[in-house]
Specification:
Length: about 180
């Protein structure tokens, strides 16, 4: 299938809907991306205010139009629980990276596992991706366990040039 940047892909699971970010989501995006607890293993700069969150949402949606990023809000009955993204998408190389964040109180309830399953299926079936990588901190045990549960394999030979504490995990399709 050819990536259709005209229609944002809405993914549904048993309990969740993964949908496009809206400017109305700025408060939750700010909360997710400024939280010390949620981001303790992430080297990116914390958001400082709602304007940065709005700019981030607009950037994500613009990158979708350029076929470079699909950034979903993970929702349950309209409540945003977190986010999940396929970014650095290269349709020619059949490659993308996956990233995710989840409200602390929603962790360890199977929500992110459900979201990852949907995004992997979408990436393989709809985008024809062959390789999906995840970068996670070497001490982020929950993220590592989640990735391994979904058949991501640690890439001991690969290093993240921008953050030495990251470890790279790779999911590859067999076809």
């Amino acid at each position: 299938m050819v990536f259709n940047c005209e229609t944002f892909p809405i993914l549904k699971t048993q309990r969740l809907t993964l949908r496009k970010l809206k400017l109305d989501d700025a408060a939750i995006i700010f909360a997710l991306r400024s939280s010390e607890e949620i981001n303790k293993f992430v080297a990116t700069k914390r958001m400082q205010n709602l304007e940065e969150a709005k700019d981030f949402i607009q950037t994500c949606n613009a990158l979708f139009q350029k076929e470079k990023r699909i950034f979903w809000a993970i929702t349950k009955q309209e409540e945003v629980l977190g986010t999940i993204v396929l970014h650095r998408i290269s349709l020619t190389r059949k490659y993308a990276e996956i990233g995710y964040k989840l409200k602390t109180e929603m962790q360890q309830k199977g929500f992110m596992s459900e979201a990852i399953t949907a995004v992997l299926h979408f990436g393989i079936e709809q985008l024809n991706l062959k390789t999906i990588e995840a970068y996670t901190h070497k001490n982020n045990v929950r993220s590592i366990m989640l990735l391994e549960k979904h058949q991501f394999i640690f890439q001991a030979h690969k290093k993240d040039p921008s953050f030495e504490h990251n470890r790279i995990y790779r999911f590859e399709t067999s076809s």
